[in-house]
Amino acid sequence: MRRVVRQSKFRHVFGQAVKNDQCYDDIRVSRVTWDSSFCAVNPRFVAIIIEASGGGAFLVLPLHKTGRIDKSYPTVCGHTGPVLDIDWCPHNDQVIASGSEDCTVMVWQIPENGLTLSLTEPVVVLEGHSKRVGIVAWHPTARNVLLSAGCDNAIIIWNVGTGEALINLDDMHSDMIYNVSWNRNGSLICTASKDKKVRVIDPRKQEIVAEKEKAHEGARPMRAIFLADGNVFTTGFSRMSERQLALWNPKNMQEPIALHEMDTSNGVLLPFYDPDTSIIYLCGKGDSSIRYFEITDESPYVHYLNTFSSKEPQRGMGYMPKRGLDVNKCEIARFFKLHERKCEPIIMTVPRKSDLFQDDLYPDTAGPEAALEAEEWFEGKNADPILISLKHGYIPGKNRDLKVVKKNILDSKPTANKKCDLINVPKKTTDVASVQNEAKLDEILKEIKSIKDTICNQDERISKLEQQMAKIAA
Question: Closest Cα partner for 203 from 187, 180, 184?
């Protein structure tokens, strides 16, 4: 019997690194020992966690700012401890969240054309974790809903619009959480933990829907992500320290749908998933390759496609959302590979002879419009992502500024309990003092902003005058 090769339009996908002049050079990529991707990308910016003395910082570069990055280039540097994870908001390309060893989550608004001065003031600081925060993940369809997970084994879901922690899942994990993933419409999350369990959780009901003990037998870190059809994909290690990948149905987690052994490398496999093409890209930390697989409904369910190999090992990896790709070149994925001192884009392409738009490669994809407001989601509503067509390429629209409206502490009535009232009396006076302090701070910040604006205007004026001088001199 001659073996028939499986038909798939993605069989010949190939990866190619861009030329040197299109890389981002001379970047001191963070050396912190943490298994996050260290890089986040959207159609406007690439953000990279970097080494920073006396605190934590990350770079935010406009995509076109390739070449050597000057050491004095402004950074986002408000954290007092190393930054461990960053994530761009899917509904606003200028808003990014960061989690840090200083136990806080900060949300930042990046100016439309990138940074001209270092950013030290976040839009909002989210405080609630008692240990370092290693995971931040925005809700896929609801505006201003952010999840964070820390080494205190707690998951907190925030309404960023009010700066409040609305859901706190602090009793579900007995050990460190390795990663958290939202499902397609953001109604469930799945987590992988150091206790070797994979859990599927309904965060609003605060209950575990499904769990699997020893999803992978090995002691090294696991990863678990949701697929578009509701199944869960995991990577981990066998008892013999071989790297494994597995596919699970949350309705029956006794046995995996598929389980594959890969190799004996010890780097954690970071999965990146494209729901439009059902392709999973696996990037091992410390590996120099990206393996990719297609998920289908037919056995063996997880089909190996190919491997992109290079010489240098990767320290981290950024993954561009579908709307940031070049559809005219049949590009189906773009990675931003972190080396020790640079960031190198890698483009995955399906070879096609025609220059026409390939609608089979680009079904409608999740756009930047939020399907729900935060309050609607917390009240129990669900909605799938609002899809957009990429036929004529994606043109980024104008993003609205992130505004945080903090609830007034003075308006909240104390409980009708005499003992409680006595305790609350001194707190009231401190609240009034803090409100006065905030008002003073606001005044100072406004003055600083107006001075900065004046400086910017003067800079523009100087450059215009210099241009005029150059013309006269020429």
Answer: 187
- Rounded CA-CA distance 203/125 in Å is 22
Q: Could you count the other beta carbons within 10 Å of the beta carbon of residue 138?
A: 24
Q: What's the token pair of residue 402?
A: 């992130």
Model confidence at 4: pLDDT above 70: no
pTM, entire model = 0.83
Share of the chain above pLDDT 90, in %: 74
Q: What is the pLDDT of residues 459-468, one digit of tens each?
A: 778 878 888 8
* Whether the predicted pLDDT of 408 surpasses 60: no
Cβ neighbors of 161 (< 8 A, separation 6 or more) are 143, 144, 374, 402, 403, 404, 405
Nearest residue to 384 (alpha-carbon basis) of 400, 398, 364, 399? 364
End-to-end Cα spacing for the chain: 79
Q: How far apart are CA 116 and CA 72, in angstroms?
A: 11
Paired strand residues for 103 = none
Q: Which SS3 state, helix, strand or coil, does residue 473 take? A: helix
With contact defined as beta carbons under 8 Å apart, do 247 and 262 qualify?
no
Maximum C-alpha span of the chain: 86
**Cα 271–chain centre separation:** 13
| Placement of tokens 């050990």 in the chain | 175
Q: What is the 3-state secondary structure (H, E, C) of 313-340?
A: CCCEEEECCHHHCCHHHCEEEEEEEECC
390 pLDDT higher than 90: yes
Query: Do 361 and 277 touch, CB atoms closer than 8 A?
Result: yes
Which residues, at least 6 apart from 225, have a Cβ–Cβ distance to it below 8 Å?
A: 179, 181, 190, 232, 233, 234, 271, 273
Please compute the mean of the pLDDT values over residues 126-143 and round it to a whole number. 96
Task: List Cβ neighbours of 262 (8 Å cut-off, separation of 6 or more).
Answer: 242, 243, 244, 245, 269, 291
Q: Computed over its alpha carbons, how large is the radius of gyration of the chain?
A: 24
